[in-house]
Design goal:
Blueprint: E1 4-8, H1 15-23, H2 31-36, E2 43-48, E3 54-59, H3 67-74, E4 79-85, H4 92-103, E5 108-114, H5 121-134, E6 139-142, H6 151-161, E7 173-175, E8 178-182, E9 186-195, E10 197-199, E11 203-207, E12 211-214, E13 217-220, E14 223-224, E15 227-229, E16 233-238, E17 251-253, E18 261-270, E19 277-282, E20 285-294, E21 297-306, E22 313-317, E23 321-329, H7 338-345, E24 355-356, E25 362-363, H8 366-380, E26 390-391, H9 398-405, E27 408-410, E28 413-415, H10 427-436, E29 442-443, H11 447-455, E30 460-462, E31 466-468, H12 470-486, E32 489-491, H13 492-499, H14 503-515, E33 519-522, E34 525-528, H15 530-534
Parallel strand pairs: 1-3, 1-4, 4-5, 5-6
Antiparallel strand pairs: 2-3, 7-9, 7-17, 8-9, 9-16, 10-15, 11-12, 11-17, 13-14, 13-16, 18-21, 18-23, 19-20, 19-22, 20-21, 22-23, 24-25, 26-28, 27-28, 29-31, 30-31, 32-34, 33-34
Helix pairs in contact: 13-14
């Protein structure tokens, strides 16, 4: 059966060099990676084994700053290739990567002790012994990517580790780790196919957006295939989809087989004390969550939805990896009840969903409606006071449910009835910002605050992240209108002289006037629109 193997290990221990030696492919594709000599993003390559099988190999960064990327790459792998430098031995990221692999349930793999050509035999033997103690039960192979010694032995060890395993026969599920555009093809997404199959012409559902997408072509390691199987690295071309419509962490799934959820019930496995707020890693997605704990169980209340299934694994981080767990219920009701966790552990979970009748009407159980309402209320607890709304559900039943429960939908967000933004404890910050405003644009780093104040007529945004006072905007506009009473057109240089300001200030204001319909650009000049005279 197809399998994906993922590297792990500390920075500069030779993971990428080893992958290049094993596969002939350099997985450091980004200019910054090549310039700095370290891996930053995930890299991929096919790995041919002595018995004729081909594995998919994922190379991950080793730096502690990129652990999030490492977890995304390790999700969905079946085997690990842990790399340890014979000179340095196990280092902090060696241990953290190994802990993450255990939390993800990746138990099979091989340890490669690299740079064997750089140490004396006695030192190498000590490094090999340390590696055996580090991962009991895994084969340990000494290699040199520089000289090629040990590479055949390493391939053979990987072939033995890859033997056996069970095919995942669950409905199709692929977590996206890359999105890009190819000329003549369009948007392409890649990922490890966790379960099911994907073929050209298939219709999948992109979650959590809830959008149906059609597969044009399927590739496995740059080769077009009729069908991709679970365990393979897959590239899927999606016609009619913009690159911005998908991102790392999204999932392509069999329609109707999975639904996004803002909560997960998990059975905990912890490495350190777990705080009340953590980063949750699932699939290739990362999101903040509040932890509601009961002994060895916890409910994760997520800030963004996740597409999960029972027995999936999650990793929890708070500066470092603090633990993880096995998903018991991928869409639980909001609770902190020990009996509910126990029922979930026994598999006694119920997934509720709205049902649409032949007359087109949606029906729901009272329990489901209350669960949905409480879930929305839970998300309202963490909203920004400047804009106290949460993303509206994208499912077809969303509008009907919101209307029945009395929530207000405004654009793409949902609000409590009558809810309005307020400065709250940021009133002093807003007052200080307004006191600095004038004709010269100042930088406003908080876009939400700037938008809030502009909606209330307390500043005018110009350019990207800058603002002027409303009085300065109106003064500049009056100068512009008066100039047009004696001249048909105005240049940037003339407007700058009228303002007595810098060229940059004049440019930002003219661009805002263009956007507001006050002026229209004609070549290097502006003309006044007729509507501006009435204003």
């Amino acid at each position: 059966m197809p399998l994906t193997v993922g590297t792990a290990g500390h920075i500069d221990h030779g993971k990428t060099w080893l992958v290049r030696a094993l596969t002939g492919k350099d997985t450091d594709r980004l200019p910054e990676e090549q310039a700095r000599g370290i891996s930053i993003d995930l890299g991929y390559a096919p790995l041919d084994l002595p018995d004729g099988r081909r594995l998919s190999l994922v190379d991950v960064p080793g730096h502690e700053r990129f652990v999030r990327t490492m977890v995304a790459g390790a999700s969905g792998i079946a085997l690990f290739l842990l790399v340890v430098d014979a000179v340095e031995g196990a280092r902090p990221q060696t241990h953290e990567h190994l802990a993450i692999l255990r939390l993800l349930g990746v138990e099979r793999g091989v340890v490669a002790v690299t740079k064997m050509d750089a140490v004396e035999p006695e030192t190498l033997e000590l490094a090999l012994e340390e590696a055996r103690e580090l991962v009991p039960g895994a084969e340990v192979v000494a290699v040199s990517a520089k000289t090629g010694i040990g590479l055949d032995e390493l391939r053979a060890a990987l072939a033995r580790a890859a033997h056996g395993g069970e095919r995942n026969i669950a409905p199709t599920r692929l977590y996206v780790d890359r999105v890009f555009t190819l000329h003549g093809i369009g948007t392409v997404v890649t990922g490890t196919l966790w379960s099911g199959r994907i073929h050209a012409g298939a219709v999948l559902r992109a979650e959590p957006a809830g959008r149906d997408v059609r597969v044009r072509t399927v590739q496995v390691h740059d080769r077009e295939v009729d069908v991709a199987e679970a365990g393979q690295r897959v590239a899927v071309a999606l016609p009619g989809v913009e690159r911005s419509d998908l991102r790392r962490g999204d999932a392509l799934v069999e329609p109707g087989a999975y639904r996004p959820s803002y909560r997960l019930d998990i059975e905990l496995e912890e490495l350190a004390p777990i705080p009340a707020r953590v980063l949750v890693h699932h699939g290739t997605a990362t999101m903040l969550a509040r932890v509601v704990r009961d002994g060895g169980f916890a409910q994760l209340r997520l800030e963004s939805p996740v597409v999960a299934a029972r027995n999936d694994r999650v990793v929890l981080r708070a500066g470092t990896t603090v633990g993880g767990g096995r998903v018991l219920d991928p869409a639980p009701a909001r609770h902190a009840d020990h009996d509910a966790f126990e029922r979930a552990a026994r598999g006694e979970t119920r997934v509720h969903a709205p049902v649409r009748g032949h007359d087109g009407r949606w029906t729901y159980s009272d329990e489901w409606l209350e669960d949905f309402r409480v879930g929305l209320e839970d998300r309202f607890e963490t909203v920004d006071p400047l804009d106290p709304g949460v993303p509206a559900p994208t499912e077809p039943w969303g509008a009907d449910v919101l209307a029945r429960l009395g929530f207000e939908r405004r654009g793409a967000k949902v609000y409590r009835p009558g809810a309005a933004g307020s400065l709250g404890d940021r009133a002093d910050e807003a007052a200080e910002l307004e006191a600095r405003l004038g004709l010269e644009p100042i930088k406003v780093d908080d876009a939400s605050l700037a938008r809030f104040l502009e909606d209330r007529g307390r500043l005018v945004r110009v350019g990207d992240g800058y603002a002027v006072s409303p009085g300065a905007y109106e003064h500049a506009k009056s100068l512009l209108v008066r100039e047009h009473e004696v001249a048909d057109r105005i240049t940037l240089a003339r407007f700058r002289d009228l303002l007595g300001s810098s060229r940059r200030t004049a440019q930002l204001l003219l661009e805002r006037f263009d956007a507001d319909g006050v002026t229209r650009r004609v070549g290097d000049e502006r003309v006044l629109r007729r509507g501006a005279l009435r204003g």
